[in-house]
Amino acid sequence: MASKINQADFIDINSILNGYRKSWYWFVISIVFFGLLGYVFVKTHNTEYSVHANLLIDDDEANPLLSSMDLGGLFGSSTKVDDEVFVVSSHSLLRDVVKQLGINETHLIKEGLLEKSLAYPQYPVQIKNDNDVADTLTTTLMFKVSVDKKLNADVKVLAKGDKILQLKDVKLPADVKTPYGTFVLDTTQYYPAGESLSTVIYLSGYGASAEQLAKSIDIDLVNRKSNVIQMAIESENVAYGEDILNTLIMLYNRKGVSDKTQQGEKTLLFIDDRIRLLANDLDDAESAIQAYKQQHGIIDVEAEAIYQTERRAEIDKRLLEAEADAAVIKMATEFVNNPANAFELVPVTMTNEALVKTITAYNELLLSRIDLMNNAKNGNAALRNLDEQIAAMRKNVAISAQKAYENAMIPVRELRAEMAKTTGKLGNVPTQEREYINMKRQQEVKQALYLFLLQRREETAMMVANTKAKAIIIDEAYALNDPISMKPKLAMLLFLFIGVLVPLVLVYFKNKLRTKFDTCQEVERMVDMPVLGEIGVDKSGSHVVVGASDTSSSAELFRLLRTNLLFILNDTSDKVVLMTSTNSGEGKSFISINLAMSLSLLGKKVLLVGMDIRKPKLSEYLGVNAKFGVTQYLSSDKISIGDMVVNDPRYGDLDIILSGPIPPNPAELLASKKVDEFFEQLRGMYDYIIVDTAPVGLVSDTFTLDRVSDATIYVCRANYTKRSDLSFANTVYEQHRLHKLSLVVNGTAMKKTYGYGNK
After folding, report:
1. Within 13 Å, how many C-alpha atoms sit on residue 112's CB side?
2. Closest-CA residue to 694 (of 606, 626, 623, 630)
3. Pairing mode, strands 688-692 and 606-610
4. In the sheet that 217-221 helps form, which strands lie side by side, from edge to edge?
5. In the predicted model, is pLDDT for residue 79 greater than 60?
6. What does the pLDDT average to over 203-223?
7. CA-CA distance, 282 to 398, in Å (whole number)?
8. Could you count the other beta carbons within 10 Å of the beta carbon of residue 513?
């Protein structure tokens, strides 16, 4: 038969509920505690709303005018939206938001014992201070202000949790002098006239407030393939959240426009400088031509030059283009090699694609440095690394430009040689005319470059005038209709549910972890042997609770136990009942005494024998003594049964035989044949013999006496006997080591029943 201890055939719901009923006070305490906790939570946590805003980052920054003139490199590459997320959430931008809205001051108005609300944008009491204080303040100051109807205020100032100043009954406006500066506390136009109020004002530096704001705002892309940035902030005051997001968007767009305008203006300055230089060179060239014509008396040189150069027009055109391109590359080379232009954008106006890509990449690094300088402090590691990259790349640009210039000069030299060859064939052309043509060609190169830069200047000016923000506002800040915080009723229900759940869990784990039992029903589920009954805890203090006229609960339970025992002793020869347990202290002797008393009340001849010869208790419990006991009887042939029997009037017709002195060889005495003879004689003298034996979990004496018994009662005790001891008792039952083994549960909680009650 499988042990019940290792089975879970059914769940005794009633037993589980009874276990929880016993801990009812834990439920009361828990529900009250969590109910109060829920009330405090509801009062101290205001309803919060989620405020959102959405931006579309314009990733196509190429101006249509610039796409055809190779000036895109002057203004950087296309926008990287991931970088824009960083810019939007940058510390410097958030600091500007804090400064513009003045939200480094937080005003909380007390509306009751526990309730506070955020006052924004209108608040009744303000703290005036020098702007430098907010720039340099390194800790958050808390001003607790209570104002009465006469505008007299009590002020307490705390820093880092420590009180640094306290003022009593000061008239507003009032100077508040602290180690962090002097502040003026005064009412505003929104102060409710003739009323008193309490408010708490938190004053932080712009930097600290920006850090806190960064934790409050959630800024991210809608998804990795999207150019849409979504922003969200949670706040109990919708206007507060909306102003923060709208101001953040405004400052971000303003910064973007300012950066691009600044880049365009720098480009205009560069072009203006080059135009000024070319204008001087062009003027010199034209003056030289005029002087040459006057010197040599040449009247219509242009007509003659056209006539002489008809056959070499194509060569001359190609040479002009090649020389112009080489001149542009040379200007870029000189610009790069000039130390004064170390961190200036390099103009890209040549046709050499390789050089254009190199200069464009270099300009992108310079633009990244400009953005980083706007957000980073001096000595920033990233800025140093970027400066090193720019220096290295500038050398590469200079080398590339020099090589490009050398390469550009190759076709120039080739065309010049071809031109010289063609010119040589014109032997009739006067030397003066050839010199004039060369001078004219130099003037035309400079004039073409001058016109080119004038065109670029107009295009750049148009781009600056049409500069637009990077971000397109999809949704200005708006609040969701439903609050995100838990509703007060739901919060209270949740806390009350936790109040019920906590004791449920605690009691459950307490029951799972405990090693002992406390009810008879638990024992019945854990063992296979029959349970004769249970005996409740008796508070009378007496070892004998059964009497002829006794109607206590204990006496009634022993009567019920007696009835169940007689059902087991169903044969007239069944007389000897052994009483045992696993360990001492489980009430074996107590059960033995009162069960024997209960049997004697039936008018039967009953004998109570003490055979726990190692640790006898009957004499102590019953308050009787005898000249001879069982150990003396078993050790001597001169003692008879009659010499041992004690009949005390206090116990009616119950006969008692005590165990006697503790022998040196208890096991051998109990194994002797005289024990068999002893019980054979007792069977002829008594109707029932109750034998108080030793615990089976400690010694084997009871197993030795099993040969003379007809039944065995195994006593366990609630909240004392371990579950492992019940497992041992169940094993004894399964192995049939004791006759008709049954169980009695001692020490259970007394239960009142109809017609009966506690003694």
Report:
1. 9
2. 630
3. parallel
4. 217-221, 228-235, 49-57, 471-479
5. no
6. 88
7. 27
8. 7
